[in-house]
Amino acid sequence: MPSCSGDRFVSSRLPFPSTLLLPAVGLWFGLVADVRAERAPVVTQHDVQAILLRHCTICHGRHHQEGGLNLLDRKSLLKGGKSGPAIVLKKGTKAEQSAALDSARARLDAAKKGLQSRIPELVDRLKKQFPTGKAEPASSGLIAHFPLDGPAAQLVKNSRSKTDAVFHGPGALRTTAGQDSKDETHKTGALFLDGTGQHLDAGQVADFRSDQPFTCSAWIKPADKVGAIITRINEPNDFRGIDFTNNRGLVEVHLVDKWPTNAIKVAPETVRITDRQWHHVLFSYDGSGKASGVKIYIDGTRARLKIFFDTLTGDFRTSEPWRIGRRKSSAFYEGSIDEVRIYRRVLTDSEITLLAVDNQQLKRALEVVGKEETRRTQTDKQALFQYFADRDKNISKRKQELRHLSARPEDSLVLRKIRSGEMPPKENLLNTGTRPLKARDIARLEQWIKAGAPEVELPAETAGTADDPLVDDDDRGYWAFQAPVHIPVPRSPDSSIANPIDAFVANRLQEAGLTFSPTAQPSTLARRAYFDLHGLPPTPSQLQQFLDDDRPGAFARLVDRLLASPRYGERWGRHWLDAVGYADSFGGKLEADHMRPYAWRYRDYVIRAFNGDRPYDRFLVEQLAGDELVDYENATKISQEIYENLVATGFMRMAPDSTSEREVAFISDRLDVIADQLDVFSTVVLGLTVKCARCHDHKYDPIPQRDYYRLAAIFKGAFDENDWLKPVGGTEKRYKFGIRRLNIVTDEDKTENDRLSVEINDVQHRVNVEAERLRKTLPEKEQTLARDKLIAHLLKSNKTFKAFAEPLLKQVKELESQRPPAQSIQALWDRGTPSPTYILIRGDHDNPGRPVSPGVPAVLSDPTVPFVIRPPWKGATQTGRRLALARWVVKPDHPLTSRVMVNRIWQHHFGRGLVASVGNFGQTGTDPTHPKLLDWLAGEFVARGWSIKAMHRLMMLSATYRQVSSAVDPDGGPSESQQRDPLNEWFSRMPLKRMEAELVRDTALWVADRLNDTQFGPADPVNVRKDGLVTAKSVRGGWRRSVYLRQRRKEFPTFLSTFDLPSMTPNCIQRPESTVALQALFLMNNATIDQLAGSFAERVEKEAGTEIELQVRRAHLVAFSRGPADEELEAGREALQLLRRHWVEHLASESKAGRPNKGAPANRRALASYCHALLNSAAFLYID
Fold first, then answer.
1. 996 burial class (0-12, 13-18, 19+ CB within 10 angstroms)?
2. Whether residue 682 sits in one domain with residue 669
3. pTM (two decimals)
4. Judging by beta carbons within 10 Å of its beta carbon (0-12, 13-18, 19+), is residue 41 exposed, middle or buried?
5. Is residue 720 part of a domain?
6. What is the distance between the alpha carbons of residues 964 and 24, in angstroms, rounded to a whole number?
7. Is the peptide bond before 424 cis (omega within 30 degrees of 0)?
């Protein structure tokens, strides 16, 4: 892993790859130190751009261009605005240019120090690898090789077979021997074809089926026209076969059964061969039948491919011969072809590298020790021998850069404005969230202008290439970064196995010398299942229905009923809301903790999604990029689907947000919001601690700092620290970050509004008619009153009209109040191309390093498959970055997505995950206790349509789930399970789980018959009392479930915080669980608990009558979902009798003292005390 030292990053790996020789185009030997975060030795346009982005582009950027001035790039600076150019460059004299060139050469010489001493070592290694001075291509699997060397008679020779090719076409066979004498590789000759139909017929040198791998390669020097390189295709019939063609510089591959309905067609996205120079071209096919199995290499570098067709289901075998330079009847090649090879396998990258080596360049590379031609800048990343081909071009470019020299930077308007304090304007610093430029930034801007505003090629950092120096295949070898594999279900002799889960668990138990614990009692299973899926106990009638069902599959039917209930979404939605950091307020660094007025819509979306069993892949895509799924801005109406897609993006708005609290939101605050949101995404979806790479490379996982900022760049279309929307408030002023609201009117809202309008108009019309009738009875001067004033006058002056109209006007107000409110939502939306993203050295926004492109962590990517970003639809202004991320995340073979989610589901059912560190699957997390079971579950999850409910059924119907939780033998000692598996890592029993905070509160309300089951809508209010307690306000005589209770980040309801309600900073992947005296004291002394105990007693008395034994039995059944044991029944009878005597005596003494009883009678109070004791018991608080 790379290590960090100051603001320079140096790779601890070898200074150059083990395969030393890389292809000549765009590759390098690793001669220089890693400079991905290191500032260039001179100020570049990238440095200046980063400075202006932080301070000036709010007024002069993408959305606003005050005075017509755009400061986003060098071209715009030179163009300027209404006041003229922002920077002025003067053409320097020859003497000035010469001096500047000498200065540049001096800087290059300085940069060369340290590099020069490593050249001998490099060349020594080159000589060892290529002792003959030539690259020797691979021969394994080579079934056809046409060197195309020598005189014309030799051009048809096949070095791998006695069967030579046959020349066809008008004219004679021609060679280029002697014509390319300066080119070491091709000076011995090559085949020249004139484009008239000349070609070689190579016969049946190879026969491949569509399920067999192969590779074809050649050196070509083509004309700018369509020309077949290597083909075996039945043209013009069904075009069946293999076709490798140069289409005016675009190298295309066709694998065809029937064109175009059953075919693969791919070509490079951008790379074209148009310079009439020699280039090596190669394509390989892995036998998968998919376009993704085709790779194209140009000069040894793998090209990003555009897929035109990917519908091959048949075979491309044909009886046609292989041809070089022509299809059957078209695509006549014009130009030179050399070294044609066909392999019966896919070559490795290193083998392809050797095929693409130009031996002339290699020869010169071996002769450069100590020569001045090796002088290069620190940021150069090309191979030494490639430098010679570019040398003249580079010198010319250097002179071109130096032709403009500004003698006086003061002539540049932007510098004058900044120095005078006019820019950025002082009066707008607060509104825009910017600060004046620091002296060092002004000096760097001046230095850049003084140097002639040079443009330096500093390409954005990318990842995932085969030669990535930061992440390699060894890093990808870690189990969590490998795609889940298909795992067969093991065989097990254990007769208690109910489904495949048990087979995996039983084998692990057997290794530990254990077996499954006994099956739990039906009433225990029912209570466990209800709490797991609903978060509430069963009613006595629901429990009895299950106990009376003696047919096979009774528990499976119970699970299905629970999953079909709306209570399920409230329970499991709460788990997801924990993970994403849901809160009804913004939180942040300050104390204001402003409310998020529409956050509840996201909460309702989650509950509905779980109830509807929305496939997890769709669930994630909607939350990551719902705004990029449908063109909502141009929709004729907002459908329910569009509404839900937009609300779903609230997932990306749940992080704490300090930018809501201040009058001004500084960039550091904005970056903190982005960092927290990335943390939420990475821990919830990927199970990785990506946040550790914000300031430096991750210390333990192969996540370089580069990849953190590439991931941040994906979200930048919506989260742009240089173009920020304030989350609340705002104004229409240009310099405010005013909130953008989207008014949602669904079909249901429109229907309801239309209905109410008819009723309102009808009632109002009756009032209007009567008012107009009475108008004629008024004095003449009052007859001209406007209708609203007329009605107001009559209400005051005419008692008969008042008696008639007041009830009707009251009805109008009531009907108006029933109109659905405007549905403002808290969402995330893409605003188009954002500002560039830079690696921030040490995480400091004032110290930007190299730019980066959007991308995903390289360790989770196939280095040969590009991360492709496209606009979500034709003509879209949105970037499509988050949609590309979402689709990458939900790939069926993604290493983490399915594993992380099934592990989270397992944790909530079994008390601990198969990976105990649920949010950390990296090197510092825990290894899976059952890796094969984890992969099997991940595969089943995807195979069953990403259905979360299917996973519940699978897990809950296992024998593993139905075990008892007891760790005690019948004689009272520790069981064998407890002794051999004390942490229950092997799941030799079910865990005894303490209720979570919401379950304690909701169940207390439920047993007291005070739980209001109304779903959805704004959060229920709370009271913040003077004594510091935060209590819920009752709703219609009861309280709703805790998931609907308002939860501010800094104002937790006391009931819930006492039982470990987590703090969302920024989210909670695993809840803590404490056992402290305060919890017992709360249950014993809190007024709300006392009130609920009284309501519990009322319920018991209503359902069981006044007989003591029946009351004890009913109270146990309601509170514990079971009847009392004999000793519990006896103890309950004695306790109630004692409590009745106590309350009779106490109330009598109170009455004698002049304080008569105004509350419940003694027997009810006794029962309430008994019920209060039950609410304090372990049997109530724990689920076994």
1. buried
2. yes
3. 0.67
4. middle
5. yes
6. 67
7. yes
Q: Say whether the peptide bond before residue 704 is cis (omega within 30 degrees of 0).
A: no
Mean pLDDT of 1007-1012: 95
Domain boundary among 889, 908, 939: 889
Closest CA to 1002 of 1054, 1055, 963, 935: 1055
Contacts of 855 (CB under 8 A, 6+ apart): 462, 463, 464, 707, 710, 711, 713, 714, 861, 867
Average pLDDT over residues 377-390: 32
**Dihedral angle, C-alpha 307, 309, 313, 316, nearest 10 °:** -90
Domain contains 220: yes
Last residue of some domain: 889, 909, 942? Answer: 889
Contact 335, 223 (CB under 8 A): yes
In this structure, what CATH number is given to the domain that contains residue 252? 2.60.120.200
Nearest to 1121 by CA among 575, 545, 642: 545
337 and 403 assigned to the same domain = no
* Structural domain count of the chain: 5
Look at residue 841 and tell me if it is in a domain: yes
CA distance linking residue 911 with residue 992, whole number of Å: 8
Question: What is the DSSP code (8-state) at residue 254?
Answer: E
- For tokens 């979402």, the residue is 886
CA 811 to chain centre: 50
Q: Per residue in 105-144, pLDDT tens?
A: 555 455 444 445 555 555 565 556 556 555 678 888 899 9
Helix (H, G, I), strand (E, B) or coil at 262: strand
d(CA 1067, CA 1080): 27
**Measuring CA to CA, which residue among 1025, 1047, 1020 is closest to residue 1036?**
1020
812 with 835, same domain: the answer is no
* Residue 359 contacts residue 133 (beta carbons within 8 Å): yes
Look-up of token digits 């790039």: 73
Co-location of 1109 and 1132 in the same domain:
yes
Find the angle CA(1050)-CA(1054)-CA(1055) to the nearest 5 degrees. 135
Cβ(302)–Cβ(363) under 8 Å? no
User: Measuring CA to CA, which residue among 1081, 1080, 1073 is closest to residue 994?
Assistant: 1073
Lowest mean pLDDT among 184-193, 487-496, 578-587: 184-193
Candidates 474, 482, 515, 475; CA nearest to 928 is 482
Token reading at 538 = 């069963």
Rounded Cα gap, residues 451 and 404, in angstroms: 8
C-alpha–C-alpha distance, residues 309 and 264, integer Å: 5
Q: How confident is the model at residue 421 (pLDDT cuts 50, 70, 90)?
A: confident
> Does 760 share its domain with 859?
no
What would the two tokens of residue 427 be? 């009066």
Q: For residue 263, what are the β-bridge partners?
A: 256
The DSSP output letter for 685 is I
Domain span at residue 125 reads: 3-130+377-450
Residues contacting 484, CB < 8 A, separation 6+: 893, 895, 898, 899, 934, 935, 938, 939
Q: For residue 562, which phi and psi values (nearest 5 degrees)?
A: -65, -40
Beta strand 334-343 with 142-146 is antiparallel
Residue 329 inside a domain? The answer is yes
Kindly give the interhelix angle for 705-714 and 881-889, rounded to the nearest 10 degrees: 120
> For 717-756, how does the pLDDT look when each residue is reduced to its tens digit (9 = 90+)?
888 887 787 654 433 333 333 344 455 666 677 777 888 8
DSSP string, 1098-1154: HHHHHHH-S-HHHHHHHHHHHHHSSPPPHHHHHHHHHHHHHHHHHHHHHHHHHHHTT
Same domain, 859 and 883: yes
* CA–CA gap between residue 1155 and residue 1167 (Å, rounded): 22
940, two tokens = 């089943």
Sign of the CA dihedral with 367 first, then 368, 372, and 373 last: positive
836 and 854 housed in the same domain: yes
* Token pair of 1119 as six digits: 């509170």
Q: At what angle do helices 522-533 and 948-956 cross, to 10 degrees?
A: 160
401 and 255 inside one domain? no
166, containing H or E segment: strand 166-168
